[in-house]
Protein 1
Amino acid sequence: MEDNAILALYFARDERALDETANKYGERCFALSYQILHCRQDAEECVNDTYIRAWNAIPPSKPTFLGAFLLKIVRNLSLSAYQAARAQKRGGGRLEPLSRELADCVTGNPEALLEAAELSRLLDRFLRSLSQKERCLFLRRYWYADSISDIAARYHLSAGTVKSSLHRTRAKLKAFLQKEGVSL
Amino acid sequence: MKAQDSLLHALTDVGDDLVEEAGHLTFPASPLRRILPLAACCAFILGAALAIQTWKPSLEAQIILPDSEDTAQEVLPSAEDAPATEVPETTGSVYILKLDDEIYGARQAVDFEGNVLVEVEHGELYLLKDESTGEALAICARDNLEDAEIASPIDLYDLEGTYLTTIEALRISCTGNVIQVNTGEEYRYFSRTAHALLASGFEDADLRGDFVLAFDLDTGMCCLFDTSGSMTATFRTERYDGRLLEWDGKHYFVITDEQGREGLMDTSGAWVLEPAWDGVTAMALGQAVVSLDGKYQVIDLDSKEILFTWPYHIYQIHAEGYVVETEDGWQQALDLAGQPVSDPAFRIELLDDEGDGQVELIQEVQTDNQLAVYRRTDGTLVREVSFQFGELYQLSARTATFRKENGNLEWIIDVETGEKIYLAHEYFYLEIIDDYDEAILCCGSYRDENNNLRTDILNEYGEVILPDVLGVVGIQHLGDGVFAALRNGRRALVRLDGTILYESDVPVGYTMQIDPEAIPTYACYLL
């Protein structure tokens, strides 16, 4: 079913909206959550919570990209679940390597943290300044939490090419943040 | 939280379009292209060329010059013979009617007299149009689809429903003299007039009304064709990342040179702006926004004169000024001399119904107090409209709707007079029918007292033009003011004046069986 038709069901408060959402986006949401949490049960919980959040948010929200809207919710929930699990020292997850890699971009004074929304706005601007391929590689790694080998397979590149592209993009991000006067 | 974790979290809220892009985009290799046996390739090319050759005279037969006499054409009834409803202006049009709500399902191509020309039971049916003129050339039918992503036979019919040929492909498109065939493995290009293969072996493509850009991802080359089929430029993919600017129906490519400087190229391959800039970000009225060393400038593309300079982003250009970023990160409208004509706001919208750069009104959106402020381009205040506990949705420079937090439409406001128009039904869904160009029309959906879904067509002042069109949310506009509708429990085509152009014999909810003998009118099975 097309997104507009699914949104119309939400607006009509028709519960088939949830079934259609699960049919169309359930797998993508689960895959993203599982990449972050590496725990089937926790990922399923996050996906179910995502449907509830979407039901409560639409209307009044009317997302232009329903898929991205849902993925953002599931990503937020999964990151929170990941942090909770880490605090309790349980669970695996794949964020540690990502976090270590992104440490390349960190400079300056960690006390002067930027407001999250402002940082998102800057990252959006930075990503739009990249070539399409660089941007997709970066987002597959740090947004979708894909492994290097998965990205390489997806884009028909060698793992080395993916790593070097990510390395260059992280360096660009560091330079961009410095230029913008952001201390992280 | 560690700083790097902040980055990881903040990434969540980058633009939805970026998330979608990374979610869907792939850059496939094309090993099959290299190993395809030459004979098979030649056979396909020959077959496709022959098909197009066969098809071509029929396409030409559709083109009737206004003054030419064509005795074979049906004589239109005189005004005296005309029925009570006005003579349709849709002569020659073909409409594609969906008989179910599936992405691939039962479809009918119906002409302006209500004759069914072509049907599919489980597939897709679309009009092959010349994207450069909008002229319909043929009807394409792809039936019995099991996997829509795999090439399968596309049956081509002329606009009278006469079978022309079959081509194995995913999709056929056309712009000017160029026919694009997506085989699923590659994109191939044929000349409509020379009946010859122009180029092949491309893995991705972008076809618009004024150009075709074909990508060979193996070599990283992009080949730009104009609508005559001539290759006008080539450049590497790393120099072009898909950024297009559009003005006055023409597209311009933002190209990056080896030093990382950006320039602007037109579809003939000529530089409109040589690469010398850190960024080229917006375009209108023969002017573009460029940035260099942290300064933003508006440049005239003909004279290359710098018309305006600003220390922060310049978002938009219009005939009487600019929309810029302020020092504090807000947006503000300025006149041509750089003087403010609005207050700094969360967002500035230019209301330009014709899209010609001549702005009717400027709208400031203040999110702190949920207020929309409308001004003329000289800054004169027209009206302030509060959208507390809801949201404002602009229909045109004249009208806007207010939706409550539950999504239901409460009123439409006439921006000039301030009159609030309350509607007969509590529409929970209202949207502009954006492919209807004659006027601003909306489709509005509501539930009646029996909880049944109803959808009306309304004008921008809330007047119902065509009531109870469909029992689902949303409208299918099929062109020329003809809409898919539900009449007498069946799917039908109706005009805006309410006349039924065609009523299908398929009741709603009925699933067609694939049985060509039982349904003998299924052209694609009989041919």
Protein 2
Amino acid sequence: MNEEILRIEGLKVYFYTYAGVVKAIEGVNLSVRKGECFGLVGETGCGKSVTMRSVIKLVPPPGRIVSGKIYFEGLDVLSLPESEVRKLRGRKIGFIVQEPMSALDPLYKVGYQAGEPLLVHGLVKDVKEMWKRVVNLFKTVMIPEPKERSRNYPHELSGGMKQRVVIATAISCVPDLIIADEPTTNVDVTIQAQILDLLRDLRRKYGTTLILVTHNLGIVAEMCDRVAVMYAGQIVELANVYDLFKDPLHPYTKGLLEAVPIITKSREVRLKPIPGTIPNLIRPPPGCRFHPRCSLVAEICKRERPPMVEVKPEHYVACWLYAKR
Amino acid sequence: MFKSLKERYEKWKFKNAAKIEEYRLMFYAFKRSPLSVAGSIMVIIFVILGVFGPWILDGIRGLMGFLYSHGIIRTEPSFNAFDWSLDVLQPPSWKHWFGTDDYGRDIFARSMLGIQVSLVYSLVVLVVAIPIGIILGLIAGYYGGKVDEVISRITDMFLAFPALVLAMAISASLGAGLMSAIIALITVWWPGYVRLIRGQVLSVKENLYIEAARAVGMGNFSIIVKHILPNVISPLIIYTTMDIAGVVLTGANLSFLGLGAQPPTPELGRIVFDGLDYLPEKWWYSLIPGFMLFLFALGFNLLGDGLRDVLDPRFRRRLEFEVKGEKE
């Protein structure tokens, strides 16, 4: 279980916009173990998606990976030429994109699109064989009447069905790692539950590693083994899911958990937001990026970036409260 | 054998049910608008005249000769398109349906042949200009950055001149003639297509399915060919249909200014130009070929308009509800 499948070291991604350089990712370190479900949580715009896109070298322009190393199964992804990275995409790393509604080309049958990775990576002889595989694939993702549905066009399917097709596309080549980038946005709660069940089943079936990017803490608690919390382009806390929810260390994580509304409490105290807003990443606050919103801020927080320390076994946090000065 | 054929048809029908439904909706949308039906009929007539013009003329001549020799009609129409005769500047009559020109040639016959010339060169121009436009537009739109800058600025340079003025300059410097007119038209025509395709590509490539295609490991080339090109093709079809009229009119303009087809090639614009000296007394000389030119352009424009509705999926969806509503 402890074998590493993905390691990210000191990743920095900057976006060169007209307004200035947006330091979207500033030194992210993490490692994902084979077979686990790894959660990446944080607010919108904190760099979760960008981190994951860096793994398959698809940072949208004007973003650029400035420095850092990404190892996937021991391969240094960032130094590979484009043609080699393409062999990873879809084949070894499946990517479930956000928003299933627009992730399918309206001009092709959904079955063809789900089977396209097989064709691209030469895993099937011809289109005929691809269609056969696609029907099985649709069965795997539990699409009813797989044969008929595979002949449909995207506009004929519902949101939940489309999301299943997108998942089918991602798993078509049986990748070693699946990155699910907010797989449940834009679908309603019942379908959300079905999609999560499906992902869990797939993981059990193939033993695939899953990275789940989300801002929904409920999903994380339900699905993941280990969690990393991101804030403003940095990882602030990394722990297994039980420790994180039971004993959050970083003030931001605490704030996040308190911001989950509790239905049994009275209306006034039900929801406790974190004060302030996400910092401007063109001129991020010096030192700890969370310090302007932190209630426990000290002098050193404003000057120096806190190091990542292992407070308890397997529980890392980047905060001056726990680091030795 | 017969049974298996039917079976196969049923299977095909089942497999492509969505497509068939879509085509039926397209047809319905088209049929609904009388203008586009009229436009397409006009286009069909002109295309037939353009392709088979000389033979149709021969056929009419034969038929009229037959009717005359059997005494059914009293005068035999003359369809001499090229020979001089003494019937100079005759008004329309049974002998000369559209009248004659200053050399005594029959304007009906010359107009029929002129359609062919117009159609051929507009097709040649578009067949050359559109692929150039598609390739450059796809490259500029997809890759963006410096490539886009270079291609777009060159395109802008061509578009900075009024099309007709540039075409006149080129065709005058190459020496008046049909071939140089075609070259001139191609030169001024491709930038429009680069612009159109580039703009479409810019919006299509932002779609998530392009990103998704990249995430499954497709290369740039296959993404362009398989996912971008098919998605920009329908505006291209509409634009092209409307554009045929534009090419024909610009070509006629060149001829009208004496730079296109040279005599004795019959070309509609040229005939209009030649007849200008005789207006307004000998009105048929300019006006009738001019009117045919007008119908030609109108037909293609109406067809393009109709196609725009038909090829717009949002419009079709709206229609679908309408159709289903009617059934209930």
